[in-house]
Every structure is written in structure tokens, then in C-alpha cells.
Amino acid sequence: MSRRLPRALVTLGAAVLLVLPAPVLSGSQAAASAPSDPESWARGCSAPALGLGEDTVSRAPVLNGDRSPSGGPVVNRPDATGKWYPIVLVHGWTSSDTVADPDDDTGAFSHRIDLSSNRIVAPHVTRSLIGQLQGLPGAAVFTFDYHPYSARWVDDKHLGPALGMVIDCLYRASGQKVVLLAHSMGGLISRWAATHPGITGADRSGEISTVVTFGTPETGSVAALLAAVDIDLSAATSEALAFIHLILSACGRLSSREIETGTVCDKLPAPARTFESDAGIALRAGSGQLAALLPWPKGIFLEALAGDTSFEAADGMGWFQWPSTHKVTGAGDMIVTSGSALAGAGNARSVHCDYQLSPARGVADQFLLRVGLIAKSDVALQPLGSFGGACFHTSLMRDIELTNEALGAVHDDLSSRAPPTPAALRAAPVPSLCGHRPGTLVNGTLPNIPASQGSVELAGSGRRARNMYATGDLDGDGTGDAAAVLQCSRGGVGWPDWIVFYRPGPKIMGAFDMGSVVGGARDGTTRIAYRDGKIVVDTLDARTSDTGCCPTGRAVVTLRWNGRKIVADSVQHLTGPTDITFTGIGNVHLGMSRAQLTDLGYTGSEGAAGCWEFSAPGKPYVTWGPQVGVVRIYPTSGDYQTAIGGIKANVSLLASVDEDFTGYPIERHLHGDFGQGSDGVLVHGPGGVIGIGVGPPPGASADDSLRTVTSITVGDATHAGSMEVGCN
Question: Given a cut of 80, is residue 467 above it in pLDDT?
């Protein structure tokens, strides 16, 4: 069964350059640190690097003759998120696919797409199959060339095993599954590699996603069988096979006398002249070597493409003195029948061509066409072009219908790895948020929730929406995922944001409640981004003293995938200009010099006991000593709060101090011994001390925890509380 939706055929006048949707390396966890540059893959996975003898593995250059639909050069670029995906081309028997330089169009996949099985309109495509593939964002096209070993069977170390090593190498280097496009015996080489152990398991279904074959003899080549010296016309079991045998026999006799015969035989490809090699014998339909090949792994999607020809001999005086007077069908591509080429495929497509064997009939048809009595589509081609036509074995990669099908298969594969786009998420499923039932968004909003009961919707609009969406690979499986911020409300109030993660589909991967790390900050997320296999969330941070509507702090939260769900990896509470830490307030810190204070706009005057008092508009007061620098910093208003816990003067209670600073040493001075007869506590932390003055217990209460914070200062161990010592 095909995994893809039906595709529209390319129009014959021009080929459509398919593109991936915007937004989408880390790939698998085994390749999390792999380089993302295909040139580095080409070096590391070359034949010399892998010890593959005279095999050639290279990245295909952009051909000078290939042009984009707009007329400019083909641009090979990564996808929208900088990812590349390895695509390997494997040529057929006795052929070659190495592209020696950008002007080389002689390879199996580098010829211009210039043929069509539809004779009504001639194709006008300005590039090769290589160029078509290179036009897909993220497509890194490589060629595997085994030409020096073509006469050997697929289990030779330079064929199937060598291709397997290349697949292993590219998968490890890129972190992405490999796509294979193979012609003829190249498909059997790919099948051998796919069915044998790689680095992910007993076969390579964990390393290969899609295989597209052109004319691969999955059950053997009848041409190879019929060309055997001990097989004659009487051995053929059908008219089509007998016809193929007749052509092969006649061409064999002619070719034995001279290389150029001046007949249709000159169009016969090299494979027909090599059927007596080891590979040729193994390729014969019904051979033991073919029977020994394992079936394609179920985890690999196989798209098979084939040519299918028929021949019409209307008057008994046709080419090769063929005695028939009717149409001969089922000849396949003259080397491989369509049944063999399409066997076992998840998706199959063939193109059909009719050929005229009668010279007299051909002349008559051309006359009738010229005078308008018959349509061009009703005129069969003359056989002289049959071996170079769209349906013939070596021409399949030049056929516009088949190459469009191949391009679509690769496009679908790469698209399936791309994370959901922002547009797709507007119709994505959502889990239960804010107590609302799970459902599916409609235009970004969860429907069927009465306005009085709240809402669930994608966060952000306009330019802000860009910061509420990100793509990456959180679970390291090589398939992109997306993260989106959703905001929800219930009971008349907004709730903290949720970060929901989606796999392609879109399908829910997991969700994280930001309220679990930043308190009750509503609509607090300001930006999300993937970084180093994790996602970083910039968010507002609710302090203890904040009202529900208005968080005053900021935090950076890093989320990760733990193999089962999304969890917080770290939470960094940031400090702002009114945040009090153990070492300072805002950008004013203990130990600063007078010059540093001056740079911040401070001016000062000398006070008592060698201390200087400094102030600046909008900044906290500072006590400074010539020998020790800044020794004490204290707020100018009640708008300041501690970065830990959000403790504020005239708002917070001593109970909050004890709770929020759990784990820090706290000195309690609640009997007039805090300094100058006042009460308070000293909280010791790294780099300094926070002095917190408190008032008396309320009313007649003796509960110290109910004392209200009256002041907050930062200082060294001597100057953190009320000032009773100098700065000398």
C-alpha cells in the first residue's frame, strides 16, 4: 500500500520543480554530533576512505546544463532549518553514474529529461534527474558507481556489501535515513544492502527510508534468459518473449559480423551483449541467485517504475520477418518485463509505448497523420527508435512521467521528516489544557468552548507569533518536530502557558506546563528556540510578591526529552534592575571601584567613619570605602525585590523569607541586635549577605513569622545590616 496521497502528473510542456514546505540535524542519537555539511560526508564516505577499491562514491555537482524552471542555474541548498538528507543514485548493469565534472551529462542519471511516452506533446524539461533532485531543499545527491565490477553478482564485496558500507557511513555522518534511486541491477544491489545487517539492526530498514527503482529485474530479466545460447524460439512461453528472443537473436548474428549494423540493433544497449557474465547468468529469470535474495524489508518504502512496450505488425512483412499480423504486448522495456520490475513494490507506475513493425504501415500512418485523418496519438512509433524511446530499459531515467514520479517519491519522503508548519498547527490536536477537554484546533483556536468558560489557542499574533513556534529534533530520532506555545484560560482568568510538541502529522509528542517552573505568570512566554538538542524558553517569572496578572521577573527555562516525556532540564532565574542578589542590585555590585560607580552615573560625598555615600537617578544608594570599594547597596523605593523568592519591603512576611531561602544560612537578630536597636535577619549566600529588616509582630502576637519585612540591603558580612561600623 502506498503511504502517499495521489500526485498530479507533471504537464508535458514543463516539469514542475517540487519544493518542501518551509519549516524544518541532529538526526539519531548515534549521530547527534555529526557534521551537517554534505561535503564532509563525501570525504568521509568516499571509496578510498571506506576501502572500496575501484568503486566510486561522490557527491554529484550541479550540472552546468541543468536549469531551473525560471531559467537560472539549479540551486542546491539545505532546507529551511539547515538540514541535508543523503540521496544515493545506483546505476544499472554495465552503466555508470559518476559525474566527472559539471559539464558531464553521460551518466545514467545526468542525461536531460527529454522523452515521454505521450507522443502528443514533446517534453520540455531543462534539467536531468540529478538536477530535479538537487532542486529539492535539503537534497544531498551522491552517486555510487561500481562500473569496474559490473559483471559480478550483487553479493560481491564491491557491490551490495560496498553499497551497504556507504549507507552506514552516510547515515552515521548525517543522522538521517538514506534515500536510494536505482536503475536495473542497481536495484538488486540496493536490495542486497537493504536486507543485510547495518549499524541499526538485522537489516538496514533503520537506515533507509525510501527506494525508487527504474526497471529493476526483481524476478529476473527475460532478455538475459532468452539470450542464453541454449534457449531458442520454441522455449519462449509467450508471444512477447518470443519476439524479444527474435530481436536478440537477429541482433546477435548481425553484431557478430560488425559493430555498427545500420539497423535497430545499433540501439541495443551493452547489457544484451554481456548476458554470459556471472551477473548476466544470475539475472536470468528463475536463477538460483535471484531466488536467494531476501525480500525488501517492510520498514522500507519501495516505489517501482517500469517501461512497457507493445509492437504492431499489420501486414506480415514487418521487421525481422516477424510472422504475426496483430499487436504483441507485454514486452516490458525489452530487457525486463513490467511484471518483474514492479514486483513487491509499495507503489508502482509504468509507462506504455506502442511501436510499428511494418514499414509500409508506418508510411501510410504518417501520410494519414499529415492530411489530418488520424491523430498523432494513434500513430505507433517506428521501431528504429524503440531502443532509445521513453519505454526502453536504458531510457527510463529520461522519461518525464517516470522521473516526475521519482521526484515526487523523494519529495514525499523528505516532507515526511519535516516538522509541522505554523499553518499545519492551526489545525493540530491539543491535549487537555486548563481543564478543558482535548480536541483539534480550528484556525488556531479550540472550538466548542463557551466564551464564559475560557479558551485554548495558539499564542501570539503578527510578528510575535514567530517567537511562539520553533522546529528541531528534541527526541533525536532524525525526524523534525515542532514546538508551539499555547495559552489558555478558565474561570475568568488566564493560566500559565503550555509548550506543546508535535511530530510530523501533526501528532502530539508531549506537553509542558510552564506554571510548574515559573509560578503563575500568565501569557509569560516571550520566545522559544531549539538549541543543542533541547528547547530554550524565555519567559516572565512570577515573584512571590507579584500579583497574578503581572509577573516582574524573567527566567530562561531549558526543556529536554527524557525518553518518555518533556521535562525541565534547568531553570535560570534572571536578575533585572530591581532584583536583589547576594552580590548586588541590578548592575551595581559589591566591591566596585569609585571609577566604576562614576561610569554608571553615580556621584558621591564623604560621610562618617571613612564611608562615602553615592547616588544616581533611578539607581539604588551605595556605601563605598576607599580601601574596600562598595560595601553596602540599598534600594531607593519599595519596588525592589529579591531575585530568590521575590521578597519585597512592606509586603512580604518573615515566614516567606524562611521558606524562600531554605538551604541558606540565616542569622536571626530579633531582639534589637540587628543594628541601631532594630530587628532583622542576615541571609548568607555566595559572594555576599542580604540583610532583611523586620518590624514587630502584629498586635499582641508573639509569632515572629508574621513580622513584616521593612527593608532589604546587600552588603558584605560586616555591612549587610544596619550601619554601625565604618569603611576604614
Answer: yes
